[in-house]
Design brief:
- With 123 residues, this protein is mostly helical.
- Helix 1 crosses helix 2 and helix 4 runs antiparallel to helix 5.
- The two termini are 13 Å apart.
Length: 123
Protein backbone atom coordinates (compact mmCIF):
# COMPACT_ATOMS: atom_id res chain seq x y z
CA UNK A 1 0.00 0.00 0.00
CA UNK A 2 1.40 3.36 -1.07
CA UNK A 3 1.39 5.78 1.90
CA UNK A 4 1.08 8.84 -0.35
CA UNK A 5 -2.03 7.41 -2.04
CA UNK A 6 -3.51 6.49 1.35
CA UNK A 7 -2.92 10.05 2.60
CA UNK A 8 -4.54 11.54 -0.52
CA UNK A 9 -7.48 9.12 -0.18
CA UNK A 10 -8.07 10.07 3.44
CA UNK A 11 -7.80 13.81 2.75
CA UNK A 12 -10.14 13.88 -0.26
CA UNK A 13 -12.58 11.46 1.38
CA UNK A 14 -12.51 13.57 4.54
CA UNK A 15 -13.20 16.75 2.58
CA UNK A 16 -15.94 14.99 0.60
CA UNK A 17 -17.47 13.79 3.87
CA UNK A 18 -17.26 17.24 5.43
CA UNK A 19 -18.93 18.92 2.44
CA UNK A 20 -21.64 16.25 2.36
CA UNK A 21 -22.31 16.62 6.09
CA UNK A 22 -22.52 20.40 5.68
CA UNK A 23 -25.21 19.86 3.05
CA UNK A 24 -27.08 17.43 5.27
CA UNK A 25 -26.90 19.85 8.20
CA UNK A 26 -28.32 22.59 5.98
CA UNK A 27 -31.25 20.29 5.11
CA UNK A 28 -31.89 19.68 8.82
CA UNK A 29 -31.04 22.94 10.59
CA UNK A 30 -31.99 25.42 7.86
CA UNK A 31 -34.91 23.44 6.53
CA UNK A 32 -36.91 26.41 5.25
CA UNK A 33 -33.93 27.57 3.19
CA UNK A 34 -33.54 24.03 1.79
CA UNK A 35 -37.25 23.95 0.91
CA UNK A 36 -36.91 27.28 -0.94
CA UNK A 37 -33.84 26.02 -2.81
CA UNK A 38 -35.52 22.76 -3.85
CA UNK A 39 -38.62 24.66 -4.96
CA UNK A 40 -36.52 27.07 -7.02
CA UNK A 41 -34.74 24.12 -8.63
CA UNK A 42 -38.16 22.53 -9.38
CA UNK A 43 -37.43 19.46 -7.26
CA UNK A 44 -40.11 18.09 -4.92
CA UNK A 45 -39.34 19.04 -1.35
CA UNK A 46 -40.00 15.55 0.00
CA UNK A 47 -36.65 14.56 -1.56
CA UNK A 48 -34.92 16.47 1.24
CA UNK A 49 -35.74 13.73 3.76
CA UNK A 50 -34.67 10.94 1.41
CA UNK A 51 -31.39 12.74 0.68
CA UNK A 52 -30.60 13.16 4.37
CA UNK A 53 -30.90 9.42 4.97
CA UNK A 54 -29.27 8.36 1.69
CA UNK A 55 -26.26 10.65 2.12
CA UNK A 56 -25.64 9.54 5.71
CA UNK A 57 -25.95 5.86 4.79
CA UNK A 58 -23.71 6.42 1.76
CA UNK A 59 -20.99 7.93 3.91
CA UNK A 60 -21.23 4.99 6.32
CA UNK A 61 -20.89 2.55 3.40
CA UNK A 62 -17.83 4.38 2.06
CA UNK A 63 -16.02 4.71 5.38
CA UNK A 64 -16.77 1.27 6.82
CA UNK A 65 -16.13 -0.66 3.59
CA UNK A 66 -18.16 -3.57 5.02
CA UNK A 67 -19.69 -4.34 1.63
CA UNK A 68 -17.95 -3.73 -1.68
CA UNK A 69 -21.30 -3.59 -3.47
CA UNK A 70 -22.80 -1.03 -1.05
CA UNK A 71 -19.66 1.11 -1.29
CA UNK A 72 -19.82 1.08 -5.09
CA UNK A 73 -23.53 1.97 -5.05
CA UNK A 74 -22.85 4.74 -2.54
CA UNK A 75 -20.25 6.33 -4.80
CA UNK A 76 -22.57 5.92 -7.80
CA UNK A 77 -25.47 7.48 -5.90
CA UNK A 78 -23.39 10.48 -4.90
CA UNK A 79 -22.19 10.98 -8.48
CA UNK A 80 -25.73 10.78 -9.88
CA UNK A 81 -27.08 13.17 -7.23
CA UNK A 82 -24.29 15.68 -7.77
CA UNK A 83 -24.64 15.62 -11.56
CA UNK A 84 -28.38 16.24 -11.14
CA UNK A 85 -27.67 19.09 -8.71
CA UNK A 86 -25.23 20.72 -11.14
CA UNK A 87 -27.70 20.26 -13.98
CA UNK A 88 -30.56 21.76 -11.96
CA UNK A 89 -28.54 24.84 -11.03
CA UNK A 90 -27.42 25.32 -14.63
CA UNK A 91 -31.01 24.85 -15.81
CA UNK A 92 -32.38 27.63 -13.60
CA UNK A 93 -29.33 29.80 -14.23
CA UNK A 94 -28.73 30.75 -10.61
CA UNK A 95 -24.94 30.34 -10.83
CA UNK A 96 -24.91 28.16 -7.71
CA UNK A 97 -23.48 25.00 -9.30
CA UNK A 98 -19.88 25.44 -8.09
CA UNK A 99 -20.43 23.81 -4.69
CA UNK A 100 -21.92 20.67 -6.21
CA UNK A 101 -19.16 20.60 -8.84
CA UNK A 102 -16.50 20.80 -6.15
CA UNK A 103 -18.09 17.97 -4.17
CA UNK A 104 -18.33 15.93 -7.40
CA UNK A 105 -14.59 16.36 -7.98
CA UNK A 106 -13.92 15.24 -4.39
CA UNK A 107 -16.22 12.20 -4.80
CA UNK A 108 -14.47 11.12 -8.00
CA UNK A 109 -11.02 11.66 -6.46
CA UNK A 110 -12.08 9.66 -3.39
CA UNK A 111 -13.27 6.80 -5.59
CA UNK A 112 -10.12 6.81 -7.75
CA UNK A 113 -7.81 6.80 -4.73
CA UNK A 114 -9.91 4.21 -2.91
CA UNK A 115 -9.34 1.92 -5.89
CA UNK A 116 -5.61 2.69 -5.86
CA UNK A 117 -5.22 2.10 -2.13
CA UNK A 118 -7.51 -0.90 -1.63
CA UNK A 119 -7.52 -2.34 -5.14
CA UNK A 120 -11.27 -2.03 -5.46
CA UNK A 121 -11.95 -5.08 -3.31
CA UNK A 122 -12.15 -5.68 0.39
CA UNK A 123 -9.51 -8.17 1.50
Amino acid sequence: MNKRDLMIYRIVTGLFTLMTLLGVSLYIFQHEMAVEMFTKLTYPTYLIYFLIVAKLLGLVAIWTRKSEMLKEWAYAGFVFELILAISAHLNVGDGEFAGAAMVLVLAVASYVYERKVYGGAKG
